[in-house]
Amino acid sequence: MVIDEIQEKNIKTIFATLFLERPSQRIIVLGPGGERLKKIGTKARREIELVTGKQVFLNLHISIEKEWQRNPRSLEKFGF
């Protein structure tokens, strides 16, 4: 996951992208009707709020980047 942007206003807004290697993984992460991604986002948002003590809006997106785990450029881009 990469944090794309953080906006500090009344409510802290975090835009993040979850990178997957294959389109088939997107279906798994989204779950039926997007419910699995919603649960992931809700849990992450609550944990961030506990740590920061502030209300947070978490905006998650999924992107496919084939074989990113084997690509040195991608690894560097993701902070590895």
From TrEMBL:
Keywords in alphabetical order: RNA-binding
InterPro entries: KH_dom-like_a/b, KH_dom_type_2, KH_sf_prok-type
Boundaries of every KH type-2 domain copy: 14-69
GO molecular function annotations of the record: RNA binding
Listed Pfam families: KH_2
Name under which the protein is recorded: Unannotated protein
